[in-house]
Design a protein that fits this description.
Bound molecules: zinc ion
Distance between the termini: 56 Å
Strand order of the largest sheet: 1-4-5-6-2-3
Helix content: 40-55%
Oligomer: single chain
Number of domains: 4
Structural class: alpha/beta
Order of helices and strands: HEHHEEHEEEHEHHEEEEEHHHHHHHH
Largest sheet: 6 strands, mixed
Shape: elongated
């Protein structure tokens, strides 16, 4: 039975992927050097790794099947390699940030190609990937954003810094499609790290504590310019917001019309009150001038009623139109469906991306913005599609 399962695993085609779950590097960081080496070698043999090499032109071999020793590896590189090899993340690129005590965090990028070649490169240690002096004011002075709201968690420098960095990664055209969003800090919803929400009063991105969980063990981007892993979820949600822009605008239009209707409701009562007051003042037998006056006030009541009726119909039309366009696009918005024809959701570089056209688009948008080469490694056509700005032109297109 066991051997059958192994055969099945061996026969399954290896998919290219990006990222990993939490790596629990704190545990690995305590493992003695000799044990790290021993375990890396054991993994390479057990998981049919053909080569381990340091990236470069040409790459430098570090281990191959004919030897049992690892040459020229730094400790952070050993920790990073074992964190990926030990999890058997075949096909993946994992960008590991190894804590180095006072020296800071060392970025090590590890890829495991389907042919069994594991390659890596590392960059200089960095103290921090965030500017914890960032403020809402500084974000607002550069970007068109709404309020920063504390729900049951509090915005701090780290949170502001990842929002600032996330927005800084967008082009002017992309920024125009996500303008005005509010950002809320929420403790947890048990599922998400961040969440874009559209509604009558929402239109915001919730940022949960979970967004910061891997901030000291994973990065995104290159080893020369590593970025905080929280940017991955931020850009994912900004991808949803970008895809949804015309739908969000329909929602805002519908809400504005409903508000106008509400605002004008007292007009009818006021017109009726004006008629009643004047009628009372004029008594049961008004003269001709009084009759004319009442006629005019009566006409004003009719006008207010007609006006309110028009506003109601307009609000009703807009809300129905919005609901209809949401229903018609339930399987994905035009930009998401278009992207699914360029790269199938089932080939998405992450497990979450495989769940739907919407999540696939958001995942790939995030990887493209944070690390275009990582998307290119998995799908060159997808990277070209984003690089050509197709996502912007399709998301910006007017909808019915
Ligand atoms: Zn999503």
């Amino acid at each position: 039975m066991k051997s059958l399962l192994l055969l099945a695993l061996a026969a399954a085609p290896v998919e290219l992927s990006y990222g990993s779950g939490p790596l629990q590097l704190e545990k690995l960081a305590k493992v003695p050097d000799a044990t790290l080496v021993q375990q890396i070698v054991a993994c390479t043999k057990g998981y049919r790794v053909t080569r381990v090499e340091r990236r470069g032109s040409p790459p430098t071999p570090v281990w191959d099947a004919s030897s049992d020793s690892l040459a020229g590896l730094s400790r952070p590189e050993r920790v990073a390699l074992l964190s990926v090899l030990g999890r058997r993340l075949v096909g993946a690129e994992v960008d590991v940030l190894v804590p180095q005590g006072d020296a800071g965090l060392t970025p090590v990028s590890v890829t495991w190609e389907p042919d069994g070649v594991v390659s890596f490169e590392s960059g200089p240690a960095v103290k921090s990937l965030v500017d914890d002096t960032m403020t809402a004011q500084r974000i607002k002075s550069t970007f068109d954003v709404g309020e920063f709201i504390d729900v049951d968690a509090t915005w701090d420098g780290v949170g502001y810094s990842v929002v600032h960095q996330a927005l800084s990664l967008l082009t002017r055209e992309e920024l125009a499609l996500v303008g005005g969003l509010k950002f809320r800090r929420v403790k947890a919803d048990g599922v998400h790290a961040a969440k874009y929400e559209r509604g009558d009063t929402s239109n915001w991105i919730n940022v949960y504590d979970a967004a910061f969980v891997s901030i000291n063990e994973l990065f995104i981007g290159t080893v020369a310019a590593p970025r905080a892993q929280a940017l991955y979820v931020l850009l994912h949600e900004l991808g949803h917001a970008l895809a949804d822009v015309r739908f969000r605008q329909k929602g805002l239009l519908s809400k504005a019309a409903a508000d106008e209707y509400q605002r004008h409701q007292p007009d009818v009562d006021a017109a009726i009150a004006a008629f009643n007051d004047r009628a009372k003042a004029l008594g049961p037998t008004p003269n001709a001038k009084g009759v004319a006056e009442l006629k005019a006030l009566d006409a004003a009541v009719a006008r207010a009623k007609a006006d309110l009726d028009t506003r109601f119909k307009e609000a009703d039309r807009l809300v129905k139109q919005m609901l209809a366009s949401d229903r018609a696009n339930a399987k994905g918005r035009p930009v998401e469906l278009a992207f699914a024809t360029v790269m199938e959701p089932k080939k998405s570089p992450t497990a979450y991306g495989k769940s739907s056209a919407k999540e696939h688009f958001a995942e790939c948008f995030s990887i493209f913005k944070n690390d275009p080469d990582a998307l290119r490694r998995v799908s060159a056509v997808a990277a070209d599609w984003f690089a050509g700005g197709t996502h912007v032109s399709l998301a910006a297109k007017a909808i019915e």
